[in-house]
Design goal:
This protein is α+β, with helices and mostly antiparallel strands. The chain is built from twelve helices and 19 strands. Helix 6 runs antiparallel to helix 12.
């Protein structure tokens, strides 16, 4: 055993001897050895920055590619943006039907994974009336729900739940520490945990939360594709006209197909009645106006006549025809009030942008699924020379108006302002209430022009709520400055049925 130990010691001494510095070696008589540690400068650890973790997004809606450079995806697919533009992102699909492929996607169709916007039940900008309309639709069942911003208290949230054929609303209250609660009996750190709890337990709600409200209507993309956002003069050959939808003072309207992929509406303008340069100048402004209650201008074809205006397609055509075809069969007063509120919302946006419509009427409002209404043809009256049709009055040479919709100061003095649009909105409300009846039904255009300055106003239509008729009269005041703003008209119509804080259900009353 001793021999082994001695051999080990001898071995170690030999190794140490190899590293001994001859200049500083201990003298043979001390028996001590010094070990110098030699560092390798090239072996120092380096501070390396790891590549950032890619931020993934989840698709909120289905999207079908419109060009060869687009990506198709379904709701729930994961995508990684590579380059972000304002409205379209060049991205890589991580999961789903286009996994590992790259292409352009509309930015308003996706949200960051794990964000509140990615939750299927989060509808932040949805108004109470819209929430009720969506939840009551046939595709949603009892227990369908959504969480939205509260209209009566900015910064707060509301829970809307379908209970059989009614929708009930609950305030979601916030704790100082950031938590949430419906009743004081229980609170939750996050909205997701609140939803998970009430999906299993009623605890004061009218019913357990079931499936989130269906997001059946995808938002309009900004432009037809990523390359038409700025370059929006498109090839006429890329547009196919399928069937005529209507005709009016500006031209004919067709259902069309762009690039063999995308349904659109195509307005063909009457040749010779518009200077293309004037139109393009106005269209540049029109294209920048974006609001959920305005028809979006997608593209134009102006290099030859007739000029094409390419817009989003609305399934039910003009509001005028929609009202005349229904005549009260399915539309009720609440629907009519809602239609007026939607138009007022779109016009309030134009008002904020200091933009004037000049030809607001039911014929220039379009209707989509679920009675969604959008204002169309804003700005066209500025650049279009109208034919002298029956509904047009020529006050002086070269100035023509649809007289029964036009404010007196615009007829007599050619003064168009947002307040003259307010006058026209009052006429549009009359059209809505009467299911598309022509205003001043017993009077000619000349009689209207003669009688309005004398104080004549249409009487209240049959079955019209007094408060609604009062709104019309406010729109028809002699002095333009005395007429309400569209913002005021919007909230008056949205709050028409007294949807205030007292109409919320209280989960505390039933909490266990």
């Amino acid at each position: 055993m001793g021999d082994v130990r001695e051999r080990i010691i001898t071995c170690c001494q030999s190794v140490f001897q190899c590293f001994r510095d001859p200049d500083t070696s201990p003298s043979p008589d001390t028996g001590k050895r010094h070990i110098e540690v030699i560092t390798n400068e090239f072996a120092k650890p380096q501070n390396r920055e790891l590549p950032p973790t890619p931020v993934l997004y989840v698709a909120l809606y289905d999207y079908t590619a419109r060009t060869d450079d687009d990506l198709s995806f379904n709701a729930g697919d994961k995508l990684e943006p590579i380059t972000k533009g304002e409205d379209w992102w060049f991205s890589k699909a991580i999961t789903g039907i286009s996994a590992n492929k790259k292409g352009y996607i509309p930015a308003n169709y996706v949200a960051p994974v794990e964000s509140l916007d990615a939750e299927p039940w989060y509808f932040p900008e949805t108004k109470r009336s819209d929430a009720e309309k969506m939840l009551i639709s046939q595709e949603n069942k009892k227990g369908a729900f959504l969480i939205r911003n509260c209209e009566s208290q900015p910064g707060e949230l509301s829970l809307s739940v379908r209970d059989d054929v009614k929708v009930k609303h609950y305030k979601i209250r916030k704790l100082d520490n950031g938590g949430y609660y419906l009743s004081t009996a229980r609170n939750f750190p996050t909205l997701r945990e609140l939803v998970e709890h009430y999906s299993k337990h009623e605890n004061g709600l009218c019913v357990c939360l079931a499936e989130p409200c269906k997001k059946s209507v995808a938002p309009e993309t900004h432009g037809l594709s990523y390359n038409t956002v700025d370059q929006w003069e498109i090839e006429r050959s890329s547009v196919k006209l399928l069937k005529q939808l209507g005709a009016g003072q500006f031209g004919e309207v067709f259902e069309g197909l762009w690039n063999d992929t995308t349904p659109v509406a195509v307005k063909t303008l009457k040749p010779g009645n518009m200077d293309p340069k004037d139109f393009l100048r106005e269209a540049q402004i029109m294209k920048k106006l974006r609001h959920s209650k305005l028809i979006q201008l997608y593209a134009v074809c102006t290099l030859e006549e007739p000029i094409y205006i390419i817009t989003e397609l609305m399934s039910n055509g003009s509001l005028l025809e929609y009202l005349q075809n229904d005549r009260g069969a399915t539309l009720r007063m609440s629907d009519q009030i809602d239609m007026g509120a939607q138009v007022a919302s779109g016009m309030a946006y134009l008002e904020l942008q200091n933009y004037i419509h000049r030809d607001l009427a039911a014929r220039n409002v379009l209707v989509g699924d679920n009675n969604v209404c959008k204002v169309a043809d804003f700005g066209l009256a500025r650049v279009f020379q109208m034919d002298n049709e029956d509904n047009v009055y020529e006050a002086k040479e070269g100035t023509k108006f649809p007289v029964k919709w036009t404010a007196p100061e615009a007829i007599n003095e050619n003064k168009f302002t947002i307040k003259s649009d307010v006058w026209s909105f009052g006429i549009l409300l009359y059209e809505i209430v009467t299911f598309g009846q022509t205003p001043y039904p017993t009077m000619t255009n000349f009689q209207v022009v003669q009688q309005l300055p004398k104080g004549y106003r249409m009487s209240s239509p049959p079955n019209c709520h007094k408060c609604l008729y009062d709104i019309m009269l406010d729109c028809w005041k002699d002095v333009p400055a005395d007429r309400p703003t569209f913002e005021t008209l919007q909230w008056k119509l949205e709050d028409f049925f007294d949807m205030d804080i007292t109409s919320y259900d209280d989960a505390n009353r039933f909490a266990k």
